[in-house]
Amino acid sequence: MVNSRIRVWAGVGIFLALIVVSVGAYTRLVDAGLGCPDWPGCYGFLGIPESDAAIQQAEARFPEAPYEYAKAFWEMFHRYLAGSLLLLVGGLAFLAWRNRAQDTPVKLVTALSILILCQAAFGAWTVTLKLWPQVVTAHLLGGFTTLSLIWVLFLRQGGLPMLRRPESRFATHAKVALAVVIAQIALGGWVSSNYAALACYDFPSCDGSYSPTMDLASGFNFLQGVGPNYLGGLLDSEARVAIHWVHRIGAIIALLVIGSLALRLMQTERILASLLATTLGVQILLGILNVVWVLPLSTATLHNTFGALLLLAVVTVNFAPQKTTLSAA
Hints:
This protein is mainly alpha-helical and 329 residues long. It is 65% helix and 0% strand. The chain has 10 helices and no strands. The protein has helices spanning 4-29, 52-61, 69-98, 106-128, 133-156, 171-193, 216-219, 237-265, 270-292, 297-319. The longest helix is centred in the first third of the chain and has 30 residues, at 69-98. The chain is flat.
């Protein structure tokens, strides 16, 4: 049974979650991840310190973190948006549990509520652990997962009825595509958290070579110590090249797997096929332009946003209601 109120709230949640993901990417790109060196406040204040006296007090409290208004603004703006999303998910949980006798999606909304609370914890650890790459990447994946679950909830409550899961003969291919896009998003997060986006200065080669010198062991060392400030990254050039180059290889795999799925769907599911092909094409183009144009803020932020949209397209193929049914959970 569908619930129109939950559908409306989920629709708003999709929009808000996509903004949170995009603003989070922008915050990383402008090096504002530590714009406020503490959590949940900012330099010991509930809001951004603005008066001369407040700024002096802030700098006295955190002499190792010079105050910059623009960075503090984007960091706190992202927190406010994330907090708003948490409240919205809380509202969804209240609606689902209050109407549970009507077969509302209690399990899905409960999972979403637990996830977003974990996201709040990862947001705090991102600051307190000084942008530790493992936490930053996990926080990114959590944000994308939150967006995906809200999207599934929206679809299963009757949103966008033209988007329906295709026939079962596409199921295996769709699952492989989902695994590939998740892996590629994780790689993208690892690129970003280790500041490896410009490790290769040209395209399609890397520093003029198709077999660049790489340090895979250091680049994918997931046991990096906790403690240093990772702002700007700590890896050497060859380790960053390894991360960047593997991400490019992942893009080729995604093109083949998701592109072939779009082609297969074109005969029977034109809307889904077009959605997959468009988001995939734009995402790959943005990735290329990031290198060619030397990582402009707008292009890099859009690359993150279209990564989320591509994930939603693949999630739709896997988890949208089938043509003849609308599931509540």
